[in-house]
């Protein structure tokens, strides 16, 4: 049970009572209907407030009963402001004899990572370059305008159609990377400005839902590659992933699809992605937009449907390969309650830096740095990278980096390995 204590002031008036809790008690409150968090040794009961959380309910519930200090710092660009919302939820503190980290985590590693973050802040690495993002948005809009001008002047011949599809593919892919920046609050100092531009880019340029993105993507960042917590790996009806899930489901004789061929039908995922972005999403109706701006600029929608669908199909290849190359080949497993640095490193790898790789992937080739510091502007990832590598080397944490081509090949190899594990367990265990 929690222990009580009082602090008296010089005025002689009784101070508010402070309750102290042990990790053993805190870890019992890890349910959706009973959620406690620890942030900087303070204990908060977020059970009733969690539904009002702007980042979604599940992202908080995934850390219930744990120390959420690093996740809290990672996702909020103004922690001081957010503390105003936390203050009414405060129920006590960790007992003086309790360690700051739960479940036996390496306290020195955690402390060193927080020092690294403070160093990055002192280096102004969380300050965005207005010129970078202005030029980036400008080159996307320029491609959209060129596409519209081509249709206006040259009609819908086959050559024009193919060129138009390539332009739309590129502009839409780059808009996808840009909305990602605003969604992570990494451009403006004020959250509200980021949210407004995010809705414009993902809604009017992409035709997707900001609510849907927030609901899924923050869960992914909070608990990457963790079953039942990261929605990006909850794909049992299509894929089995990692080393443990295939064996588990093979033993249970689960077979929604022939998973031993999943490295071959992985390519069909592009069709699902393309369809998703072409058809309405129920969550989208909570946002004041749906169709991409480039669609509305095309005067006769029906006659331009083919280049639009072709562009979506090509973009889906681009998107899926880039977003999966950093995670699918990495560890995918159940919750292991690691510290922030170790959990992100186990689930994430980098791709070698080059001007093309930076542009082609929207700087997701720096996926490690992005996952450790999601609110850091992408043009600063290369500056913090040496610090991250040094910290990983100090504690023997693997920092994996590979060429772009190998990263794509590793996706297929990883899926094949998992599929073979499933087949062996399905037939013989």
Automatic annotation (TrEMBL):
SUPFAM superfamilies: Cytochrome b5-like heme/steroid binding domain. The chain crosses the membrane at residues 124-142, 148-168. This is FADS2 desaturase. InterPro entries: Cyt_B5-like_heme/steroid-bd, Cyt_B5-like_heme/steroid_sf, FA_desaturase_dom, Fatty_acid_desaturase. Pathway: Lipid metabolism; polyunsaturated fatty acid biosynthesis. Keywords: Fatty acid biosynthesis, Fatty acid metabolism, Lipid biosynthesis, Lipid metabolism, Membrane, Oxidoreductase, Transmembrane, Transmembrane helix. It is found in: Membrane. It comes from the Eukaryota.
């Amino acid at each position: 049970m929690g222990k009580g204590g009082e602090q008296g002031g010089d005025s002689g008036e009784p101070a508010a009572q402070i309750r102290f809790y042990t990790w053993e008690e805190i870890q019992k409150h890890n349910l959706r209907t009973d959620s406690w968090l620890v942030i900087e040794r303070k204990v908060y009961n977020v059970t009733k407030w969690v539904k009002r959380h702007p980042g979604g309910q599940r992202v908080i519930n995934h850390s219930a009963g744990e120390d959420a200090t690093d996740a809290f710092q990672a996702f909020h660009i103004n922690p001081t402001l957010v503390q105003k919302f936390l203050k009414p939820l405060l129920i006590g503190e960790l007992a003086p004899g309790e360690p700051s980290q739960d479940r036996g985590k390496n306290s020195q590693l955690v402390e060193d990572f927080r020092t690294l973050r403070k160093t990055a802040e002192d280096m102004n690495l969380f300050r965005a370059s207005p010129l970078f993002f202005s030029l980036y948005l400008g080159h996307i809009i320029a491609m959209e305008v060129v596409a519209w001008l081509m249709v206006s002047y040259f009609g819908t011949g086959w050559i024009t159609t193919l060129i138009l599809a390539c332009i739309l593919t590129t502009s839409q892919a780059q808009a996808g990377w840009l909305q990602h920046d605003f969604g992570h609050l990494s451009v403006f100092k004020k959250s509200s400005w980021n949210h407004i531009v995010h809705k414009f880019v993902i809604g009017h340029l992409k035709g997707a839902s900001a609510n849907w993105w927030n609901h899924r993507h923050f869960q992914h960042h909070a608990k990457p590659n963790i079953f039942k917590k990261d929605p990006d790996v909850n794909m049992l009806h299509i894929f089995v992933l990692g080393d443990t899930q295939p064996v588990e489901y093979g033993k249970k004789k689960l077979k929604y699809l022939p998973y031993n061929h999943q490295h071959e039908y992985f390519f069909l995922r592009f069709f699902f992605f393309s369809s998703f972005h072409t058809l309405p999403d129920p969550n989208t109706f909570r946002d004041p937009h749906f169709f991409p701006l480039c669609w509305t600029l095309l005067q006769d929608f029906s006659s331009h449907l083919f280049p639009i669908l072709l562009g979506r199909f090509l973009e889906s290849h681009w998107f899926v390969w880039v977003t999966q190359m950093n995670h699918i080949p990495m560890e995918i497993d159940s919750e292991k309650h690691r510290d922030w640095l170790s959990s992100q490193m186990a689930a994430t790898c980098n791709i070698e830096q080059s001007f093309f790789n930076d542009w082609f992937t929207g700087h997701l080739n720096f996926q490690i740095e992005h996952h450790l510091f999601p609110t850091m502007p992408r043009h600063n990832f290369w500056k913090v990278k040496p610090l991250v590598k040094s910290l990983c080397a100090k504690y023997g944490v693997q920092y994996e980096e590979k060429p772009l081509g190998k990263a794509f090949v590793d996706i297929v190899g990883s899926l094949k390995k998992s599929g073979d594990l499933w087949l062996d367990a399905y037939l013989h265990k």
